[in-house]
Amino acid sequence: MLFAGDPSPATAPMPVTVFREGRRRQPTARAVIYLADQTPSLPVVTAVKVLAINGSPHKDGNTARLLGYVCSELELKGIQTEIMHIGGKPVHGCTACGKCFENRDMRCIIEKDDVNACIAAMAEADGIILGSPTYFADVSPELKALIDRAGFVAMANDYLFSRKAGAAVVAVRRAGGIHVFDTINHFFGISDMITIGSTYWNIGVGMDPGDVDNDEEGIRTMRRLGQNMAWVLEKLTKG
Predict the structure, then answer these.
(1) Full DSSP string of the chain
(2) What is d(CA 95, CA 188) in angstroms, rounded to the nearest whole number?
(3) pLDDT on residue 7
(4) Which CATH code for domain 49-237?
(5) What does the pLDDT read at residue 105?
(6) CA 107 to centroid of chain Cα atoms
(7) Phi-psi region at 123: left, alpha or beta (left = phi > 0; alpha = psi -120 to 50)
(8) Could you give the angle at the alpha carbon of 56 between the alpha carbons of 48 and 132, nearest 5°?
(9) HSE value, Cβ hemisphere, 13 Å, CA-based, for 49
(10) Of 79, 122, 124, 154, which has the fewest beta carbons less than 10 angstroms from its beta carbon?
């Protein structure tokens, strides 16, 4: 990707070579592009991007609102954000078939849901935020299915999410949110990722949609989480 005003590969007078940083087979949103007659001292760098995945069936519920607070802080720092909704959709759990280790094509063999689209977007992002409501003291079933399948695909492909920044966001009515927080962070830990925290556990309290907007401490926690992720991503992508 070139910034506006730069020649596109189709119109550039010289061949364009793309160099990507990171582990083998790991796609990244950060590409450094040099024209063949230029020195590597003036790279063109694509924008840093964070993907947030909403595991709640409510697209404008408390989980989505908490994700919005985090993303707004990231955008203030010039970071692109995208929110994907997987909650409430039919998402199949992992069947332990092992095909991802046989094929090593960065995809799950199950094609009938949105998991592969999520995996591709996660691979392209510099940072990943997973948000979930609290269901019987754990993540939503859709998010758990994504964690299991994306986790295996990532392992099978040289740890696809290695050294990406990861953050958990949890909506809870009263109790049980810490276990949800732990479940998501365990995924980051085993995926060779860098886990981002805040000044408190990344949890917002509320029952009905919009209740978390009244949780002042929860909002402060989310805003600081966004600031911390932006700070870490600046260090990671600075080159």
Answers:
(1) ---TTSPPTTT-SS-EEEEE-SSTT---S-EEEEETTS-TTS-EEPPPEEEEEE-SS-TTSHHHHHHHHHHHHHHHTT-EEEEEE-TTS--PPP----HHHHH-SSS-S--SSSHHHHHHHHHH-SEEEEEEE-BTTB--HHHHHHHHHHHHHHHHTT-TTTT-EEEEEEEESSS-HHHHHHHHHHHHHHTT-EE---SS-SEEE-SSTTGGGG-HHHHHHHHHHHHHHHHHHHHHH--
(2) 21
(3) 40
(4) 3.40.50.360
(5) 98
(6) 17
(7) alpha
(8) 65
(9) 16
(10) 124
Cα gap 60→46, rounded to integer Å = 30
How far apart, in whole angstroms, are the C-alpha atoms of residue 73 and residue 77?
Answer: 7
The whole-number pLDDT of residue 239 equals 65
What per-residue confidence (pLDDT) applies to 42? 45
Residues of the chain with CATH 3.40.50.360: 49-237
Per-block mean pLDDT, blocks of 10 residues, the chain (239 long):
36 31 37 40 68 97 98 97 97 97 98 97 98 98 98 98 98 97 98 98 97 98 98 91
Q: Which pLDDT score is estimated for 31?
A: 37
